[in-house]
Amino acid sequence: MPRNRADVERDAKQEEILDAASRLFLADGVETTSMTKVASAAGVAKNTVYWYFKDKDALLLAVLGRELRLASGAWEVQAPDLADRMVAVVGLFARIDRLSSAVHARLRTSPLLAEWHARFHAGSDRWLGREIEVHLRSQGQQPLAPEELAAVVRIWTYAIEGLVAHEAPVDEVRRVCRVLVAQLRPTAAS
Amino acid sequence: MPRNRADVERDAKQEEILDAASRLFLADGVETTSMTKVASAAGVAKNTVYWYFKDKDALLLAVLGRELRLASGAWEVQAPDLADRMVAVVGLFARIDRLSSAVHARLRTSPLLAEWHARFHAGSDRWLGREIEVHLRSQGQQPLAPEELAAVVRIWTYAIEGLVAHEAPVDEVRRVCRVLVAQLRPTAAS
DNA sequence: ACCTGAACACCGTTCAAGT
DNA sequence: ACCTGAACACCGTTCAAGT
User: Is the pLDDT of residue B147 over 80?
Assistant: First the structure.
């Protein structure tokens, strides 16, 4: 199925709206940015936005997916140190902290966002778990019991979310990440 | 200055509005609860609410203060174990998780909420710091360096916020709290 | 001082109508 | 298929008017 000019132009228009929404959502927050603002920044009537996106949640999700894809380039930061890698991840999320706070706020109202959120956490849990296991092995330390690993992954996840949400200054981010890594070892917390 | 009948009735009316707001905010969330709903649940015209509370943020703050005061009775839970005490704290906050998510969502828009939030965290940081210091001493362990203690307090704070926000099931809360306590020791994370 | 009805400027969303 | 003007049912907040 070849992409004709119509297809390209459709994508272009959609991209313009996405651009506008992205810029406004990141800078001013999702709640503060009305659909009217998005539309007029994209140069269309406000109901036109609804032709391309089902509703505001769908628009948010599209912006989120796009920003995450953009970040995933820088994602594979191969700093040798795990703590440094975590600092980099917090840095990446700092850019989109207004988006994630909007997601958290609308979790109970929007099943669409709730599902996306669950999926996202499942993915990041796997990633974090592997990072931690690899780190321990490389340090010649004992691996963690599955239950303990799960708890540590939760702690790391909440730490990242907290640092991002509270816009922590870099040196605080660094200290927290270093302590997280330093505390890493089997404890046999029954 | 004696409290006359007028004073009492004023407080009664204010209390009724606060009751209604409390019930609705906790059950349905702050965003979903309109001022109209609060007013009609309290049996007044909606603009009457504005006679008692400056705006919706002020109403949220009043509800928050009251719920926190109510909780502070159960606050001094003297479970002997620190991990158990943390589990209890998470339980207390679980009740008002819709309130705190609303606070976090409106932090950038409302200076009033931002100031309250900063004050609250300053208080809870001091409390957590003391709890951790006392625990280490009671276990005959070395105290943490000030910088490391500060980082650990951040980690614990974010863990509590995360568990509350994500409505974690009790056994997950227990596992996370146990691991947090078990990991507690000086690490000299440079 | 306390409370109201009516209005204001918004909001997200929908719909009938145009091309 | 794509886009619009106009409307809908809300929202938080304000204001002039009543007691």
Answer: yes
